[in-house]
Design goal:
This is O-antigen ligase-related domain-containing protein. It is found in: Membrane. InterPro entries: O-antigen_ligase-rel_domated, WaaL-like. The protein is built from 18 helices and no strands. The protein is mostly helical. It has a domain of 286 residues. Helix 2 packs parallel to helix 7, helix 6 runs parallel beside helix 18 and helix 8 packs parallel to helix 18.
Length: 419
Amino acid sequence: MRLAARILVVLMPVLLVVGRAPADIALSLVVLLFLVAMAIARDAAPFRTPWMKVALVFWVWLLASAPFALADIGSAFGVSASFIRFPLFAAALSYWLIDDVTWRQRLLLCLGVVLGASAVWAVIEWIDIALLINDGRPVIRLTGPFEDNKVGIFILKLMFPVLGFLAWRALLPADRLADGPARASTRGTGLVLGYAALLLVAILLSGERMALLMALAGMLIMGLLVRARLLRRLTLALLAAAVVLGGLTAVLAPRLYDRQIASTVETVSAIGDSIHGRYWQSGLDVGALAPWTGVGGKNFRLLCPEIKAAEIAAFEDPQEIQFCATHPHNIYIEAYTEHGIPGLILFCMMIIALILALRGAGRDDRVTGAAIGVLLTLWPLATHGSFYNNWNGAVFWLATGLMLALRNAAAIERKGRPA
């Protein structure tokens, strides 16, 4: 039972590329096996952690508020009932599946290979389509190995656990568990920087503006926090080179520059007037219909066109997509809109509990990298996919479970025991 679940988890990066249905089926099977194993062993320990307790309370609120949905109670209850599989998946990872160093490394290896292959695919796609077919005119968005345009955000959300692990492996063995200054091998440092450069180039070429912005921010944080001084300096140098490369696209690839650099600056400087700013405002307006219970899961998409009808009609480009989408594109506004003020408070408490769960790990590059990936996804001023979407949920909670498992391993190693 445990072996089958571990194999599914190691294959999860591949399944995320194959499609949302295979990944969600595998995740659900892992959760089912986990619950059966815990019931047989009569082990409730993974459900007693502070973050899991808050997640369970959040889930109870989702269920309790679902009957008050304003448009479609069935959809609201379906979203609410199925949400719990995601925190349970993270608990299964950290407590039962990758608590063993061999399986953690197998998951990280598979994840690293899939991310690298996706990046190479995106680069080749850009060269093939932009340079060969379009006579040197860059395409706006790339798909990579996916059916839709999400290769950049996929790489962003899962790259930092791998980079953190590689940074930790780059340290000399005697310095990995020691506090204070650390030394890194030349070969290991080169591997970290080369791999990071490949991923950054793929994100730049992908045409995904938020992914590029968050990737650069993550590299800056990582460059400041990794333990080896040489690796810190070279990581910051790589970040500077990436910024210079972004500037050079103004000459080498003007359309790419307009998409990734110029339009990003324009959007950030006037976020309220951007399409995502209008989505955020629409979320707040719809949420005002039922601020204490929320309008219900998956009900924003149903109510928004009616609430914003007058603004849509008066807009210079009177299309519904200018104000309404399937979700508000911000996970905090989504929590408020669909689950009310109590839902937003519990959602934030769950995030805080996850952050507090990192205590006791010490300064460990593996935990630092994994935490950067999770916290970038949770950054409140970013644009987000729906938090309750099966693909987004699988990606986020895979990263979260990996972060918690690495934290547990680091804490155990600090006590002088193998993990």
